[in-house]
Fold this protein.
Amino acid sequence: MNVINPNTSNSMTDTIAAAARSVASPGTQIIATNPSDGPASIESHFDEAVCSVALLEQVMAGEHAGMDAYVIACFGDPGLLAAREIARAPVLGIAEAAMHVASMIATRFSIVTTLDRTKIISRHLVRNYGMEHHCARIRATGIEVLELETNTDAVFRSILAECQQARDEDDIGAIVLGCGGMAHLVDELQQQLGLPVIDGVVAAVKLAEALVGLGLNTSKAGDLDYPSAKHYRGKFAHFSPPRR
């Protein structure tokens, strides 16, 4: 399984990989990667658009290598549908996975994310995934994504404080963490909060294993069919979809 961190932070990829491997079944090999080109962190629509190009290159390489599944380890789920178009194997985004898992164990959840502007991106995903009746509130900590790598007490206290407010004010049964870089905080947050805390990385890994176990691949009927064969010019020539 290829767990792809779409930003260029190697250390964040290591954090994500550790979380993924902590729940992977014995027969599941986690290959964690990140592109060498693109944004250092993903905190805007522009970041998402730019990172999607390198992300899709990694999916293309995985398809040639016969990868069984992919996890896009960024809570904006950048390039998710495009990745599904070019992949035979299942492709899961961590936001979609986390929200679905949360909805299975609680009737209402809140999302605790990073910068305030990313709340809007999360709100779009809540609507697109049909989770408006389940998601009580989207909260921002004001923490930049790369600050999560510092692992300081101040960063943890800020996230914990927002989660405590969500628990006490939002009438919820679970909390969804709105960044793959928060994956290492789940256990301590759950102990402090006394309610389920869902990280999308581990949720997506287990759901991907289930899909592979069921023998299910990405549907090629309708809009997720492979892109039509055509020529791409210039620097994107290598993206030209082949005839199938």
In short: The longest strand covers residues 135-140. Strands lie at 2-4, 31-33, 70-72, 91-93, 109-113, 135-140, 174-177, 197-199. The mean pLDDT is 96.
